[in-house]
Amino acid sequence: MSLWVYIDGRYVLKEEAKISIFDHGFLYGDGVFEGIRAYGGRVFKLSEHLQRLYNSAKAIALKIPLKEEELKEKVLETLRKNNLTDAYIRLIVSRGEGDLGLDPHKCPRASVIIITDKIKIYPEELYKKGLAVITASTRRNIPSALDPQIKSLNYLNNILAKIEAKLREAPEAIMLNKDDYVAECTGDNIFMVKEKILFTPPLGVGILKGITRDVVIELAREENVLVKEEPFTLATLYGAEECFLTGTAAEIIPVTRVDGRVIGRGEPGIITKKLIKRFRDLTLREGVPIY
Ligand code: PMP
After folding, report:
1. Which residues contact 105 (CB under 8 A, 6 or more apart)?
2. Contact (Cβ atoms closer than 8 angstroms) between residue 186 and residue 165
3. Structural domain tally of the chain?
4. How far is Cα 244 from Cα 92, in angstroms, rounded to an integer?
5. Of all helices (H) and strands (E), which one includes residue 5?
6. CATH of the domain at 135
7. Taking Cα atoms as reference points, which of 189, 195, 190, 270 lies closest to residue 226?
8. CB atoms closer than 10 angstroms to residue 40
9. pTM reported for the whole predicted model
10. Domain of 255?
């Protein structure tokens, strides 16, 4: 099946979709992005993702050359052009073409790219069994250097941690912040359950404000689960009753081992399973219609 990619107002085939090697997104990771999903003909939390994209762009003083409403329409149009109803959407805004220097003022026009594709997710079996994750020695970026709330094209910090995970044959790595608090994973936020309370690191620890994280906090509160955004250490996490990760691609995925320590009974816990169900129901009910 041929796939159409949106680049700066034009649709080109995937094979012909190219950017300049002088684009600062390529040269320096200077740009922002979003990962979004569509379920059964609806785009889940589209406005929230667009809002985060515009906020990230603002933080790096990057002007997106389209209004939010226009970009929203382009996302839907790209899905329609590719006949996709269940999809992963990658929205990229790069600084654009400049010279070899760092100066972003030499890049007169930001580039907007929309890629839509079939989704590739963890096998269903892992949602039943849970993941065995490790902790990376690479620390999450300190907010005063590069705030993890900015979803920038510079993901080298996360990639370094992912390399550690792969070297240790783990699917994901937990990243700590510089003060030894659990921050997040390379592409997911983290939650744990202790004495029936759901804990997740607060934004101040230095994490991405995950859209799935926000949804899960809301769903848990609807289920009368007490949610606390509080910093916690690895030792506390090792003693958790339940643990799971959240992200647009992974949704809610249970974690049953951390650094070889068995979490709870070594299987997805009650609260985790309930939230997975509630989340899946929600994705099928809510969202911006593609047609
Ligand atoms: N943290 C990081 C570092 C991520 O890259 C992602 C995925 N975008 C997340 C958390 C989860 O965010 P969301 O739920 O918005 O996909």
Report:
1. none
2. yes
3. 2
4. 28
5. strand 4-7
6. 3.20.10.10
7. 195
8. 13
9. 0.97
10. 124-285
- Looking at 14, 151, 162, 277, which residue is catalytic? 151
Residue 240 placed within a domain? yes
Residues composing the chain: 291
Q: How far is the CA of 88 from the centre of ligand 1 (A)?
A: 14
Q: Are residues 167 and 276 in the same domain?
A: yes
Active site residue 151: yes
Alpha carbon distance 20, 277 (integer Å): 44
For residues 50 and 36, give the distance between their C-alpha atoms in angstroms, rounded to a whole number: 9
Residue type at 192 in one-letter notation: M
Tokens of 26: 């390529």
Say whether both 203 and 261 belong to one domain.
Answer: yes
291: in domain: no
8-state DSSP, 139: P
Rounded distance from Cα 159 to ligand 1 centre (Å)? 13
**Residue labelled with tokens 């690479």:** 138
39-98 pLDDT, tens digit per residue, is 999 999 999 999 999 999 999 999 999 999 999 999 999 999 999 999 999 999 999 999
Q: Which residues line ligand 1 (CB under 6 A)?
A: 35, 158, 184, 187-189, 208, 210-213, 246-248
